[in-house]
Amino acid sequence: MPEDHRGKIASWGEAREISTRLGREGRKTVFTNGCFDLIHVGHLRYLTEARKYGDCLIIGLNSDRSVRTIKGPGRPIIPEDQRAEVLAGLAVVDLVVLFDQPDPHELITLLQPNVLVKGGDWPLDRIIGKEVVEAAGGRVLTIPLTPGVSTSTIIDRIVSLHNNLDKKHETE
User: Fold this and answer.
1) Element of type H or E holding 156
2) Backbone angles phi, psi at 11, to 5 degrees
3) What is the distance between the alpha carbons of residues 119 and 144, in angstroms, rounded to a whole number?
């Protein structure tokens, strides 16, 4: 991988070449996906654990349009290019690939990872791409989430603190 973390942000074609090469070398690829809007300790712990299951951790990152479809018009908070760069800057992440679709099925089918990982809030039977990975002999697993830590919780806390400050200033 290039020294500059932005070199870890790959096109679909580049990611496919890397995944294929690693497979030929007998190395395991791990795939996970998400919005990763406001990176927090829960994300870091999750990605660190996911990386333990293979030699290369590939993140499928929802594009801004994809996030809006899933989360609504107020999201994402952070634009896709910045979210991708922050993820690429994490030592545990080997590759970041943006996808514009509502789900990563097409990207998973292209990359054929050995291991597919999602957070513990996803029942195994609802994990998108499960059948693709298992049909190729791969593993699908979930990793427990860090309790009380989520992007939505952080946003709610910021809004609440902001509203409380506004009320305080109104009474002064």
Assistant:
1) helix 151-171
2) -75, 170
3) 6
pLDDT classification of 165: cutoffs 50, 70, 90: low
Closest CA to 100 of 140, 51, 64: 64
Residue with tokens 């580049």: 14
Q: Is the dihedral of CA 122, 120, 87, 152 positive or negative?
A: positive
Q: How many residues does the chain have?
A: 172
Beta-strand pair 95-99/115-119: unpaired
pTM: 0.88
Please give the pLDDT value at position 149: 80
Task: Reply yes or no on whether the pLDDT at 146 is more than 90.
Answer: no
Distance CA 32, CA 121 (A): 14
Output 121 or 31, whichever has higher pLDDT: 31
> How far is residue 119's CA from residue 63's CA, in Å, rounded to a whole number?
19
Beta bridge partners of 119: 143
For the record, the structure tokens of 43 come out as 């994300």
Which tens digit of pLDDT belongs to each residue from 10-36?
Answer: 999 999 999 999 999 999 999 999 999
DSSP 5-49: GGGGEE-HHHHHHHHHHHHHTT--EEEEEE---S--HHHHHHHHH
State the pLDDT at residue 58: 98
N- to C-terminal Cα separation, the chain: 55
